[in-house]
Amino acid sequence: MAIRINGTDVAAPDDARVSLLDLLRERLHLTGTKVGCNQGACGACTVLVDGARVLSCLTLAVQADGRSVTTIEGLGSADGPHPLQNAFIEHDGFQCGYCTPGQICAATAMLREIEAGVPSYVTSDLTAPAPLSREEVRERMSGNLCRCGAHNGIVDAILQVAAERAP
Amino acid sequence: MMPFSYRRPSSIDQAIQMAASGGGRLLGGGTNLVDLMRKGVERPSSLVDVTALSDAIEETSDGGLLIGAAARNSAVVAHPLIRARYPMLARAILAGASAQIRNMATVGGNLMQRTRCLYFQDVPGSRCNKRAPGSGCDATGGFNRYHAIIGASPACIATHPSDMCVALAALDARIHVAGADGARTIRMIDFHRLPGERPDLETLLEPGEVIVAVEIAASPFVGSTYRKVRDRASYAFALVSVAAGLTMRAGTIAEIGIAFGGIAPKPWRAFKAEAALRGGPATAQAFAAAMSDELADAAPLPGNAFKIELAQRTLGAVLAELSGGDR
Lengths: 167, 327
What we know:
The complex is a heterodimer.
Chain A (H helix, E strand, L loop, with lengths): L2 E3 L2 E3 L9 H8 L18 E4 L2 E4 L12 E3 L1 H4 L7 H8 L9 H16 L18 H7 L10 H15 L2
Parallel strand pairs in A: 1-5
Antiparallel strand pairs in A: 1-2, 3-4, 3-5
Chain B lengths: L4 E3 L4 H8 L4 E4 L5 H6 L7 E4 L7 E3 L5 E4 L4 H6 L1 H6 L1 H9 L3 H6 L2 H6 L5 H4 L42 H7 L3 E6 L2 E6 H4 L18 E7 L6 E7 L10 E10 L2 E10 L6 E2 L1 H7 L6 H11 L11 H17 L5
């Protein structure tokens, strides 16, 4: 078995203590994924595992064995940025930028969750398609902290991409 | 972190065998356990990753649901029957943690997360009877805003932080477990223990046993919901939370189920309040009187005495909403 990271197979580490975050940053030098709190409180280390947003700091790399991991490096590049990356630039969705990779990975998965009809704690009707509002985006993105306080720009950027993708 | 071995069994029998080998812990999503290992609170010599076991959500023959222990919290909410039939469970799960953590955390792991407070996690700075039995408790005379007002003991006042478990207690869920000696079922309301003199023992799950599934019966409630009051709007533990289900018949309360989070060392099923309300009217006075009955034995601390009124008001608001009131 192996961990598929941005399309490339990587062997799971022999030492089970290695977190997915440390595997990405320290061994594979994929430093787009950031270390924030390293205890599941800030969301800076958010990556996608089999398409679902998870915290790489609280994931042991061996837990990802046999799974597919996408990091910010797998979502977009300087030459071909992800629509969310362009929207974050347009709406000033960051200041220092440290939380941005986690924000964008989380937002990527969040938009899919809304498209799949998954409600949030602030959704009034649990069985109807989830609406897309500022309140919804703020609740759904509450696991990603921005200590520069760029949250309003982040919500604007996400709402713009969501509107562009709407059928 | 101490070195440990890691295995991922593909069957219940394998998992039981590995779990019985000693020194090990079962691993679900790891959102609590891995964090506690990094903090030095937990030091298992081996991890048995049980996420390859059943995560199926299936209807039972009597109209209930059986949820595989490996089901991720987010998958439970995504299931249409959970949302349609058990709104209080869906809302409770959605009130918990963040989307990332709900994607990782399993149902079994949610049950087995540690009953905890910040002093428990402060290694080596704070004394904690749960972490080091007999060492003392720094929370009792410390910052205890988040601690229990009922069901605690001089040894430990930590709360069980799960939201999902509060709804499962109100729904009278049953936990299916299996071990070397066979399978058994534990009522959710019995699954977690009160601390007494042994706060290090938190559940009735025996070493070597594995949680297989959680069963919820057909809901007897016409309406149900979950409300969580916390220090910020999202991604915080409850100060007080209420899971409640209600069925009115001819102007009186026919069926009622209430459980609280944030106020006790375990998901707190409010049997006294239910008994006071059943068969009576759904009025603000009745709700307040029922809550007074429920908290008659409460022993709040200087930092959390506000939870008595907060619990009363939260229950009143939830029951008014469910009974068609305007609060």
